[in-house]
């Protein structure tokens, strides 16, 4: 790697600062717009995107960037990349607008259809989750780095699901794994909760995009978790698909 993971961590924090400037500005209306898929977009999504893209273009000029708020390159181009950055500058835009703090900055590096590095920053809590695959996953809080490990104690199975986009079909899968309790959380924080053992299972039935899941997947994999496509443990959940839209997926601690 011709960059340091620490550079990417610092960059996620810088992007988070740009988000918080807007989040905490009492005079800001967030500039909420509706995108073509009816999902919301704010000034904060755009500000974070600008910070990340400008820095990555300097840091790794030879690595292509796919950002939710940038150009969505076609499959022919994407499939020719040996590695690329995939960015969700502000995941959980609905949670940002609802001011519940459950939103994240997501930066991941994809190689061979899987994330090999991921950083998830939680601006409202100033917490970073990060992982370079094969080197463990970590949480940085109050200047301290703690290694993460999924929960190996299966006495009580806690499920986690979307706060704004939960689907009734998820309950069946949670029950199949013996879960009796589910928590609703916005954004890629759900992957991080499985990574730190606060939840054991995250099954997502409804749609997400590749940039919503890549960084979180790196973190949970680094902590010993697994991410599967669909609702069984048969197929790995892969990236660089023809369509950037993800199918359902299952995260297990
Ligand atoms: N109908 C839809 N199609 C595609 N993605 C959707 C969607 N509804 C929700 N999402 C994705 O779900 C993400 C939010 O995840 P969650 O529900 O776990 O908080 C959104 O990220 P953004 O907030 O970055 O737009 C969005 O990409
Ligand atoms: Mg998102």
TrEMBL record:
Q: Which UniProt keywords apply?
A: Cell inner membrane, Cell membrane, Hydrolase, Magnesium, Membrane, Metal-binding
Mostly located where? membrane
Which reaction equations make up its catalytic activity?
Answer: adenosine 3',5'-bisphosphate + H2O = AMP + phosphate
Q: What class of enzyme is it?
A: hydrolase
Q: Which parts of the sequence bind substrate? A: 68, 90-93, 212
Q: Which cofactors are named for this entry?
A: Mg(2+)
Q: What is its EC number?
A: 3.1.3.7
The superkingdom of the source organism is Bacteria
Give the residues the record marks as binding Mg(2+) 1. Answer: 68, 88, 90
**Pfam families of this UniProt entry?**
Inositol_P
InterPro entries cross-referenced by the UniProt entry: CysQ, CysQ/Inositol_MonoPase, Inositol_monoP_metal-BS, Inositol_monophosphatase-like, Inositol_monophosphatase_CS
Where Mg(2+) 2 binds, per the record, is at 88, 91, 212
Similarity section: Belongs to the inositol monophosphatase superfamily. CysQ family.
Q: Which PANTHER family match?
A: 3'(2'),5'-BISPHOSPHATE NUCLEOTIDASE 1
What exactly does this protein do?
Converts adenosine-3',5'-bisphosphate (PAP) to AMP.
Q: What is the protein name stated in its UniProt record?
A: 3'(2'),5'-bisphosphate nucleotidase CysQ
